Amino acid sequence: MHTDDAATLDKGGMKIEASWAKDAKAQGRELLFGFSVIDKLEMEVGLARARDDAADPATKTRSVGLGMKWVPFQSETGWSLGARLDYGRTRINDREAGEKFTARDHALTGLASYRRENGQLLHVNLGVVKVKAQGESDTVGTWGVGYEFPIVDHLQLTAEIFGEEHARPDKAIGLRYEVFAGCKVSAAVGRGSDRSFGQVGLAWEF
User: So what's the pLDDT on residue 151?
Assistant: First the structure.
């Protein structure tokens, strides 16, 4: 899900996430590693590559990101509350314009999750992101609302709506299946701003 949950790995826990996504004529892949060295604090390192065939020749990007999620209030049922801080750097090769440049972004997001006794989960995100590229910067607010609904054992339905200031929202629906304890596969499709997008992924916590 694009909308993040207010939860962290257990102390000493680690995770690996891999995904492939397609958004209109752009497609990319991402690999993320996360770990927790103290209670209620999770650190993440991510790498991503993407190719956008909307232009000819295609625009290519390479990204690296660092994230920190802190959730001091965590509950088995009811509300959990926290926040995350993210930094990203993307190297953009715009071959149609003959330009290469680097974009940097900083994001701060508030996280809230509400868990019901029947396993249903509501997630709410509210944040701000600042992007700087080619000597200019822009700051916009971001938001997201997601819901997880258990269908049968080990299978969940996910639905979410998310977006940012001055843009129409994106909507997505998907499925997540737990292959074995800690390992889950997922797939989702969505629509927004007159284009379709989708993603498949694998997450392993250990």
Answer: 97
